[in-house]
């Protein structure tokens, strides 16, 4: 946006964004898996293409919450491995704790 004073980075689930997730898959109580993709012209300091990522948090909304963290990590020069470790360190989140049935 022309009103933004900082850098604008778009993210979402479609390839018209600078950073997007595809192949989003639920792993049941084990979390979520997705492929993080960066547009060639994004200038996020990462090579274009896809990187498999995993979250312990449940639900597709968790992937949307992870994407801005991925973008910040890339802009700050973190490696994909460092970003992945950070996402896993967040655990399952504070509001939803899965329990296995008997």
Overview of this protein structure:
α1 crosses α2. Strands 1-2-3-4 form a 4-stranded mixed β-sheet, covered by helices on one side. The mean pLDDT is 86. The longest helix has 16 residues. Helices cover 25% and strands 24% of the residues. The protein is an alpha+beta fold. β2 and β3 form a beta hairpin.
Helical proportion? 25-40%
Strand content: 15-25%
The major β-sheet equals:
4 strands, mixed
The number of helices is: 2
Oligomer type: single chain
Radius of gyration: 14 Å
What pattern of helices and strands is seen along the backbone?
Answer: EEEEHH
Spatial separation of the terminal alpha carbons: 51 Å
Globally, the shape reads elongated
Low-confidence stretches: none
What is the number of strand segments? 4
Structural class: alpha+beta
Strand order of the largest sheet: 1-2-3-4
> What value does the average pLDDT take?
86
Nutshell version of this structure?
This protein has 102 residues and is of the alpha+beta class.
Key phrases:
102 residues, single chain, four-stranded mixed beta sheet, alpha+beta, 25% helix, elongated
Draw up the topology in text.
Elements lengths: L10 E2 L6 E8 L5 E7 L10 E7 L4 H16 L4 H10 L13
Helix pairs in contact: 1-2
């Amino acid at each position: 946006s022309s009103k933004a004073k900082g850098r604008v980075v778009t993210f979402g689930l479609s390839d018209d964004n600078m950073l997007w997730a595809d192949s989003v898959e639920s792993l049941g109580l084990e979390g979520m898996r997705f492929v993080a993709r960066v547009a060639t012209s994004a200038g996020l300091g990462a090579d274009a293409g896809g990187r498999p990522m995993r979250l312990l948090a449940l639900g597709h909304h968790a992937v949307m919450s992870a994407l801005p963290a991925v973008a910040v990590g890339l802009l700050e020069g973190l490696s994909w491995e460092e970003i992945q470790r950070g996402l896993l360190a967040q655990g399952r989140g504070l509001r939803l704790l899965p329990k296995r049935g008997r």
